[in-house]
Amino acid sequence: MRAVGQRHVDRGARGGVWELRCVPVGSETLPARTCRACGRVCRVRSSWTRRLVHTPVGSDAVHLLVRVRRYECTDCARRWTDDVSGAADGGGALTERAVWWAVAGVVLDCRSVRSVALALDCSWGCVNGAVLAKGVERLREDASRLDGVTAIGVDEHVWRHTAHGDRYVTVVIDLTPKRNGGAARLLDMVEGRSCKAFKQWLEKQPQAFRDHVEVVAMDAFTGYKKAARETIPGAVEVLDPFHVVHLAADKMDTLRCRLQIEKTGRRGTKDDPLYRARRALRTTRAYLTGRQTERLAGLFADRANKPLEAFWNAYQQVISCYRCEDGTDGRRMMDTLISELNATPKPAGQPKELRTLARTLKRRRDDILAYFDHPGSSNGPTEAINGRLEHLRGIALGFRNINNYITRSLLHVGGFRTYIHAKL
Q1: Across-strand partners of 43?
Q2: Can you tell me the distance from the alpha carbon of 32 to that of 14, in angstroms, rounded to the nearest whole number?
Q3: Helices H / strands E in the chain, number of each
Q4: What letter does residue 376 receive in the DSSP assignment?
Q5: Which residues of 126-157 are buried (b: 16+ CB within 10 A; e: fewer)?
Q6: 3-state DSSP assignment of residue 220
Q7: Does the N-terminal peptide bond of residue 177 adopt cis geometry, omega within 30 degrees of 0?
Q8: Are the C-beta atoms of 411 and 106 separated by less than 8 Å?
Q9: What is the model's pLDDT at position 421?
Q10: Any idea of the CA torsion for 327, 246, 197, 238, to the nearest 10 degrees?
Q11: Cβ(205)–Cβ(146) under 8 Å?
């Protein structure tokens, strides 16, 4: 492109727009007016002005007003137009540099599509379409992004809060970089949170990818375990520590609420010891403050709360197993704890909630102990990425199209940032 004129259009509080009148530069081998079939110089049949959105300068947007001419050869009847694909590939309204500037604003700066569109002085749909097109081109349709994946994490995620339709998606995360101190990345999403949804996604992937996966980190949902066992039987299934501890904490809360109702006949209030100690009960023993320690001591002094004390001790032992610096010792402690909780006959005073937890830990013993044999296979990065996806939904004020949501999610947490930096 060669600029032949310019003018500034004031838009008030929104800044202004620089309009640059441009003409396409001819081909390096033959001028644009030369017919490539017969080599004769042809006439200009018609022309029109095409507006292309370019990268802004300061607070002012920049638009290129390109004069595009249509040519006609009178000898061979061939017709063609000026080639502007070097500035705007695919016939889009944004130049290639403007597209990458928009992608950087949406992904790197976490700006909304609307704010980027205002800076470029173009429509929301124009920017959104360009950003999604790059996501589809560079991520969703790029098979090489599955190369080298040896550990994956799978979890559910709420992508919209509506009364109708499926609100959940299954999120698949690449945990392989965590072994080398890198950051996990989103591999893909699939609508639904069932065994069928995860199994169908695995079956669609190349056989080489399934053969290369060694570890699958997941929560306590048995559907994901069944899908992994049937599709990638050679992989080790790991039950994530966060979900094990969270499961124990939830069962302990259930016991606390039951004791509260049995004692008072109602839910707890701020003056009830059981209700006031709800946060202290979930806190790791090493992090308890002096006030929390006194509150728990007073709570456990009541003989009616002895079942809760037994559960709290078991809960703290679960945490201690995962906090152990030596993985071998941690595995041995967890194995011993599961055996003690499932010992027969049952210890006197063991609450039914603790027995339920003991059966769950026994049923998933191999998955729980597998974590200690495969360090770095925690589903914690998966939960972190879920949090970033929540932030994305807040920026966009929600999504209605699942495909657009998946593409935007891949752009934000799919390992695309390094590629953007290379393009800018």
Answers
A1: 72
A2: 38
A3: 17, 10
A4: T
A5: bbbbbbbbbbbebbbeeeebbeebebbbbbbb
A6: coil
A7: no
A8: yes
A9: 65
A10: 10
A11: yes
- What tokens appear for 199 in the block? 């199994």
**Residue type, position 63, single letter:** H
Question: Model's pTM, two decimal places?
Answer: 0.77
Q: Are strands 168-174 and 185-191 parallel, antiparallel or unpaired?
A: antiparallel
Q: Which two tokens stand for residue 65?
A: 């007003």
CA–CA distance, 413 with 411 (Å, rounded to integer) = 6
Average pLDDT (54-67) is 91
d(CA 204, CA 232): 12
Distance CA 294, CA 355 (A): 28
54: CB partners within 8 A, 6+ apart: 20, 62, 63, 64, 95, 97, 98
Tokens of 105: 């604003």
Please write the tens of the pLDDT for every residue from 321-334.
999 989 899 999 99
Confidence at residue 422, expressed as pLDDT on a 0 to 100 scale: 63
Structure tokens at 121: 């002085």
End-to-end C-alpha distance for the chain, whole angstroms = 20
Position 308: which residue type?
L
Confidence of residue 250 (pLDDT cuts 50, 70, 90): very high
Residue showing tokens 């990638």: 232
Please say whether the dihedral angle defined by the alpha carbons of residues 115, 118, 123 and 127, taken in this order, is positive or negative. Answer: negative
